[in-house]
């Protein structure tokens, strides 16, 4: 199993142990890491390599957010990266208590990429047609992404598990 971490994070896969299929041919990603996992799967398939399952945990889905929202996020990050990241992590855990996490070095370009990434139905459908099962996990109380819009989008090509009362980390307490 290959796991891609969320923006500013590392080693958070333990939060998703209840969902992860721990097999050699499974690729997982959380939030920003879902984008990276998807891109990895596309490359692997193009090289003729086997992937059975792509698991996307709270995938970074900002297609329903306005340009102004995205600009405000980037501006806030530029203004004070430490404050932005602290507020971001708090929002990821909301409405529940923050748990300890390991952090990675962040760069503005990664935030820009995750805010502006466009999930394309045809690209997702193409990997499904190559035999990859896509599983998407979303929390109904996610305060980072528009989980409802993400659910409707991904239902076209994936099995979507929508977890009542779960936050961005899919935690319910």
What can you see in these coordinates?
This protein is of the alpha/beta class. The chain has one domain (2-163): Rossmann fold (3-Layer(aba) Sandwich). Helix content is 39%, strand content 17%. Strands 1-3-4-6-7 form a 5-stranded parallel beta sheet, with helices on one face. A two-stranded antiparallel sheet has the order 2-5. The longest helix has 15 residues, at 32-46. It is globular, with a radius of gyration of 15 Å. The mean pLDDT is 97.
Layout: helices, strands, pairs:
Layout lengths: L1 E3 L4 E2 L15 E5 L1 H15 L6 E5 L9 H13 L1 H13 L8 E2 L4 H9 L4 H9 L3 E7 L7 H8 L4 E5 L10
Parallel strand pairs: 1-3, 3-4, 4-6, 6-7
Antiparallel strand pairs: 2-5
Helix pairs in contact: 2-3, 2-4
Keywords:
single chain; 173 residues; alpha/beta; five-stranded parallel beta sheet; two-stranded antiparallel sheet; 7 strands; Rossmann fold
Briefly summarize what is shown.
This protein has 173 residues and is an alpha/beta fold.
Give the N-terminus to C-terminus distance in angstroms.
Answer: 27 Å
Structural class by sheet pairing and helices? alpha/beta
What overall form do the CA principal axes indicate?
globular
Order of helices and strands: EEEHEHHEHHEHE
Q: Which range best describes the helical content: under 10%, 10-25%, 25-40%, 40-55%, 55-70% or over 70%? A: 25-40%
Radius of gyration: 15 Å
**Could you tell me the number of beta strands?**
7
Largest beta-sheet characterization: 5 strands, parallel
Classified in CATH, the superfamily is Alpha/Beta hydrolase fold, catalytic domain
Q: What amount of the residues lies in strands?
A: 15-25%
CATH topology: Rossmann fold
Architecture, CATH level 2? 3-Layer(aba) Sandwich
């Amino acid at each position: 199993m290959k796991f891609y971490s969320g923006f500013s994070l590392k080693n958070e896969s333990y939060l998703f142990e209840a969902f992860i299929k721990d097999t050699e041919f499974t690729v997982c990603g959380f939030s920003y890491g879902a984008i990276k996992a998807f891109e990895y799967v596309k490359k692997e398939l193009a090289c003729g390599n086997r992937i059975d399952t792509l698991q996307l945990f709270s995938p970074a889905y900002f297609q329903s957010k306005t340009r102004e929202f995205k600009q405000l996020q980037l501006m806030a990050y530029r203004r004070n990266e430490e404050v932005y990241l602290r507020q971001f992590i708090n929002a990821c855990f909301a409405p529940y208590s923050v748990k300890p996490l390991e952090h990675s070095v962040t760069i503005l370009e990664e935030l820009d990429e995750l805010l502006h990434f466009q999930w394309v139905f045809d690209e997702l459908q193409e990997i499904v047609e190559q035999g990859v099962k896509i599983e998407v996990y979303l929390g109904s109380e996610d305060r980072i992404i528009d989980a409802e819009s993400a659910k409707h989008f991904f239902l076209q090509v994936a099995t979507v598990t929508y977890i009542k009362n779960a936050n961005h980390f899919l935690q319910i307490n």
